[in-house]
Amino acid sequence: MAENDLIGERIKRVRESRKISVEDLAERAGLNPDLVRGLETN
Known about the structure:
Oligomer: single chain
Number of domains: 1
């Protein structure tokens, strides 16, 4: 598994454990929600 895949999985796991939506995480990080979704799934 590529390192980027592991990072995306970790982002999603931590985000979900803290009950933060993709939209909230994106806003806090100054990113587009679609980018966050892409990181988590690719």
